[in-house]
Amino acid sequence: MIFLIVSDDLEWCRKHLLTKKLKDVVIASKSPQHDLALLATSDHTIIDYGTFGEWGAVMAGGHTISLDVDKNFSRVMSEFTDKWHVCEMKRFEEASKKTKKKVPPSPK
Question: pLDDT tens digits for 53-63?
Answer without folding.
Answer: 888 888 998 88
